[in-house]
Design a protein that fits this description.
The complex is a heterodimer of chains A (333) and B (336).
Chain A lengths: L1 E12 L7 E13 L4 E5 L6 H8 L7 E6 L2 E2 L5 H8 L2 E4 L13 H16 L3 H14 L4 H4 L9 H13 L5 E5 L7 H18 L2 E6 L2 H8 L3 E6 L2 E7 H6 L4 H8 L8 E2 L31 H5 L5 E2 L4 E2 L12 E2 L3
Parallel strand pairs in A: 3-8, 3-9, 6-7, 7-8
Antiparallel strand pairs in A: 1-2, 1-4, 4-5, 9-10, 10-13, 11-14, 12-13
Chain B lengths: L8 E12 L2 E13 L4 E5 L6 H8 L7 E10 L3 E2 L5 H10 L1 E4 L13 H11 L5 H14 L4 H5 L8 H14 L4 E5 L7 H18 L2 E5 L3 H7 L2 E6 L2 E7 H6 L4 H8 L50 E3 L2 E3 L18
Helix pairs in contact in B: 3-4, 4-6
The chains are: A alpha/beta (333), B alpha/beta (336).
Bound molecules: adenosine-5'-triphosphate (2 copies), iron/sulfur cluster (2 copies) and magnesium ion (2 copies).
């Protein structure tokens, strides 16, 4: 189990004449990933999802807060002693086209991490070969076909599966999948999602899923937790199905309303919410971070920062929470 | 001459081939498709189905190693663009047919600001009133949620992927063309930005009375904005009709499969089913018979030998042996 509490991160951007500009990417984020569980982060571009995923995978530093992995707070360890903990958390790159080295065959790509693993566990070459085949079979591709080939000889879906197989070489407990299906075709996309779901069930691997497309979150983790992130802050969280069918924060409602409606099959939700303006990093940091774009804001929203309050299951940070019916409903034929 | 009304477009028996080590192979195998004046048509289909090749053909812009081998593309006011060359063609592009090519986020000139490139474009089309052009560009960018002045002063590397994509859409619209072709206009965008851009595309389409073609691999995007929807597979248009009808009652087995593969927000998520198999590449498109048969659950004997002709009934065109012949009951003989 992984627990993150109060994670903050501010990037210093080299600005123009005005000197360095501080970009607050995360403003105190808490979440928990259970063993074998599924956690999804959603939010607009630039809200801090990738930053959070990289922090969880130990690939990015953070300014304050702590990450506790299976009872051990990372703050209690020296950086080099954190390594073995973070090795159990593997990031799957969002772009299967650039995640694999084009000059190496898939065999070579898998051999490097497997050699390390073999050394750690005192096993030999034969084990490596066998394990490479086993992992490729596990992710649903034919080892005989894939092993001798280079990435450009494989389809997007196959490449994404190779990337997942490579992440599995170290026997991870958590896979962080950052937009890992948005680059590939619909027909293949569902296959990769099904694979992640299957790995959860068969290997008890937890999945941290980062996406713009909330409907895909239902597919791998309908039973999991959803965190809606806005400008580096969790604004709503709870069981995935519950938040999707009953969102109370206007930002969550905006995200759900923006998902295209399959006219002819569905009708738009009756209370769809559209933000009054586009996301702008320069918007005020006082009061509710969403206030400038929120159709329901009051004077209070601009002065008071809403705290995350929970009913035990679903939490939200809004001064005027109200459940709205925004998701499409099945059209009657 | 610039048209002041929406043109109709008629693509007929279009075959486009690419030269490969294995010879010239067809990416479009005799495609026919009409865009009714004033409508928004969507083209969907998996990677490699020929969507971009078709879009490029509307501008006679297929580049070597590709070439238009056969067929015609009639655009009202322009004639058969397949026969246009040189100066005529250059002038038609941009002024009469506005377009955003796929991966437009990478097609800006890195050495010039967006504004400079806009002025170059205006001059090359003999615009006298360049300040008005800049003003229109700023207004369009503003509608898409960007600070127009800042964007025009920026170089490509100073803009995010999503910002560049909107700059591409601005270029497609700013010269006031009445036929607009958008190839994957929202792929780099998040949902909220995508919804905002799609709304603008639709609003501008209606305000200016355009004929618009949108290419996307995302069925949801097509569903949201188009009036008419064409589904491509293996260089063929396999189904075409009014969008709500194609989505609500798909007839071609491929269209059915694509729709079933979309994870939805409500209902039983496990009803979403992956389409088995993979789309063909140039080299693996079958030379005879139905191009979809390897993945088709409805396949019958004739599918192996005869490429199904598109048949139109009640505003719906479908190319499938198992569809459109209600008189003869179909018994699927083999499943794959
Ligand atoms: N290396 C960096 N240096 C400076 N700023 C950064 C850096 N990485 C990210 N940021 C900024 O931090 C914020 C959060 O970025 P992040 O990549 O986490 O967003 P995201 O939610 O993953 O967005 P997307 O959906 O577009 O992938 C953004 O404002 C971004 O510009
Ligand atoms: N320059 C080229 N040389 C050789 N083959 C090409 C070339 N451009 C495209 N093709 C092939 O032609 C076919 C159709 O390609 P096209 O780009 O039109 O597909 P698409 O439907 O737009 O796909 P995507 O969704 O990936 O953009 C594909 O099999 C592609 O590999
Ligand atoms: S606190 Fe106010 S501004 Fe913020 S989301 Fe709630 S209603 Fe909108
Ligand atoms: S023609 Fe035959 S193989 Fe092709 S889609 Fe129809 S039933 Fe399937
Ligand atoms: Mg990201
Ligand atoms: Mg394309």
């Amino acid at each position: 189990m992984i627990t993150a509490s109060g994670i903050t991160k501010t990037y210093k951007q080299r600005g123009n004449m005005l000197g360095a500009r501080a970009v607050p990417a995360l403003r105190g984020v808490d979440f928990t990933i259970e063993k074998g569980g599924a956690v999804t982060f959603i939010g607009e571009s630039g809200c801090g999802k990738t930053t959070l995923g990289r922090i969880v995978a130990g690939l990015e530093t953070y300014d304050s807060g702590d990450i506790v992995i299976d009872g051990t707070p990372m703050s209690s360890l020296k950086p080099r002693h954190r390594q073995p903990f973070f090795r159990r958390i593997q990031l799957i790159h969002q772009d299967p086209y650039s995640a694999l080295n084009p000059t190496r065959t898939i065999h070579q790509t898998l051999a490097a991490p497997l050699a390390l693993r073999a050394k750690q566990t005192g096993r030999g070459k034969a084990w490596m070969e066998e394990r490479a085949r086993e992992l490729l079979a596990l992710v649903g591709i034919d080892p005989g076909y894939v092993l001798p080939r280079y990435p450009h000889q494989l389809s997007g879906g196959m490449r994404q599966r190779v990337v997942i197989a490579r992440a599995l070489t170290v026997d991870p407990e958590v896979l962080v999948a950052d937009e890992s299906v948005s680059m590939i075709d619909v027909s293949l996309r569902l296959g990769v999602l099904a694979l992640l779901k299957d790995l959860r069930e068969r290997l008890d691997v937890s999945v941290l899923f980062i996406t713009h497309d909330i409907a895909t979150a239902r597919y791998i983790g309908g039973d999991g937790e959803l965190y809606v992130i806005y400008r580096g802050q969790v604004v709503e969280s709870g069981p995935t199905e519950r938040v999707i069918s009953g969102p109370v924060h206007p930002y969550t409602q905006s995200l759900l309303s923006a998902i295209p409606v399959l006219h002819g099959v569905e009708r738009p939700g009756p209370e769809r919410v559209v933000p009054t303006e586009a996301l702008n990093e320069a918007h005020s940091d006082t009061g509710c971070l969403f206030a400038r774009r929120c159709p329901f804001r009051t004077d209070r929203c601009e002065a008071e920062l809403p705290a995350l309050v929970s009913d035990g299951e679903q939490a939200h940070a809004c001064l005027h929470p109200q459940r709205r019916n925004v998701i499409p409903v099945e059209a009657v034929a | 001459m610039t048209r002041t009304s929406a043109p109709g477009v008629r693509v007929k028996d279009l075959t486009v081939v690419y030269k490969t080590p294995a010879g010239e192979l067809p990416a479009l195998g005799g495609v026919s498709l009409s865009l009714a004046p004033g409508t928004i048509t969507g083209i969907v289909g998996e990677s490699g189905s020929g969507k971009s090749t078709l879009a490029l053909s509307l501008l006679n812009a297929v580049q070597p190693p590709g070439r238009i081998k056969e067929g015609s593309v009639e655009i009202d006011g322009l004639g058969n663009v397949v026969e246009l060359t040189g100066e005529e063609l250059r002038r038609a592009r941009g002024r009469q047919v506005g377009y955003v090519f796929q991966a437009a986020q990478n097609s800006l000139n890195p050495l010039k600001t967006v504004g400079k490139q806009l002025l170059d474009l205006g001059r090359s089309h003999d615009f006298d009133d360049l300040p008005a052009l800049l003003k229109d560009a700023r207004a369009l960018l503003g509608r898409m949620g960007l600070d127009g002045g800042r964007v025009l002063d920026s170089y490509q590397h100073e803009l995010s992927g999503g910002m560049r994509q909107r700059v591409g859409i601005m270029f497609a619209l700013v010269l006031n063309a009445h036929l607009v072709v958008l190839d994957e206009p929202t792929t780099a965008l998040d949902m909220i930005t995508q919804a905002a851009i799609l709304k603008i595309v639709r609003d501008v389409h209606h305000e200016r009375g355009l004929t618009t073609l949108i290419i996307t691999h995302d069925m949801g995007v097509a569903a949201e904005v188009t009036d008419s929807l064409a589904v491509m597979y293996g260089g063929r248009v396999v189904e075409h009709g009014p969008t709500t009808e194609v989505l609500g009652s798909p007839r071609h087995p491929y269209t059915k499969g694509l729709i079933r593969a979309i994870p939805r927000l409500s209902g039983d998520i496990d009803e979403a089913r992956a389409l088995p198999g993979r789309p063909p590449t140039l080299g693996t498109i079958p030379k005879q018979g139905c191009v979809f048969r390897e993945r088709c659950p409805m396949r019958i004997a004739v599918c192996d030998t005869v490429d199904p002709e598109p048949v139109t009934r009640d505003a719906r065109t479908v190319a499938c042996h198992a569809v459109g012949r209600p008189a003869t009951p179909i018994v699927p003989k083999e499943y794959v």
